[in-house]
């Protein structure tokens, strides 16, 4: 067992291709993100922003200490990115896998089997190959085991691993003290080849960010994460799913039709604030109805995808004037409602995939969410001051 572990680690170390951990400063705390708006739309008192920043810094330091501590070899290949909630972090552990071939799973566009083109004996991943396929479930299991071992060595911070959630590609760690932080660690295979055929018509940003930017983005590597595809009532355990989270991050950071939007010497827009509010709306609704099953399948990725489509629909920075944030946000809400009613939310990178199709989410759930959002919209979002 020790030997296997060492081999795995060694492979990690050799295959690390991202030279250093990139930490993106988390957005302010939830209250802060709302108070960043030019007006206080939903009666929230503005937070002390400098305090928010200090805490943010603290979280970041804790996290990077923790990662360095837990596995110095892995740190080099870790890319740290932060999602909407300030106490939730996504960390990708990137493993470069050369000479592989993707076999699309059941015309899904998003799910693939991974095959090695040549499979030399010394390939350290051989032990995860089953019937010629790189087994996603086996690798994820091993990944969990390694992390489990590693956190035993951490004595100065209280860290626990959450139980495995079915279908989740992430290993979730909870740092309990001094403040609860949840860290999703996601194993990702990096492919430095051209993107799969099904993405050819995706990323429709020509009129928004420009054709040149699109070409540059499509030259970047893409990723696969261990995620089971649905197979009737059960799941296909060996599939990997495409991930473009690095591109999404790029687009969000560089989101203007003018190059300088939201930079220190440029104009400010309200795109990011609108996205934050949309995510917050869904999070709050999920909290409110957590005991029911209707909202369980909805996630921030749906909100983000709809938001990207809206950015394409309204590509000009002038549309997203911070003074009009209430109008822009309302447009986001209206657009999301329309997607729910039409049961149509095209994947931003894989246009053949409809994230709101029956296959993923049943009609009843979509109607339920639409009804709740409509209620909030008609009553000036009472849910923003709940919980
Ligand atoms: Zn902007």
From TrEMBL:
Domain Mab-21-like HhH/H2TH-like stretches: 270-374
Pfam families xref list: Mab-21, Mab-21_C
GO molecular function, one term: chromatin binding
Residue stretches of biased makeup (Basic and acidic residues): 45-56
Source taxon at top rank: Eukaryota
GO biological process: activation of innate immune response; cellular response to exogenous dsRNA; DNA damage response; negative regulation of double-strand break repair via homologous recombination; paracrine signaling; positive regulation of defense response to virus by host; positive regulation of type I interferon production
A cellular component term, taken from the record's GO annotations: site of double-strand break
Domain named Mab-21-like nucleotidyltransferase: residues: 83-254
Region called Disordered, residue ranges: 27-56
Family: Belongs to the mab-21 family.
Name listed for the protein in its UniProt record: Uncharacterized protein
Source species: Cavia porcellus (Guinea pig)
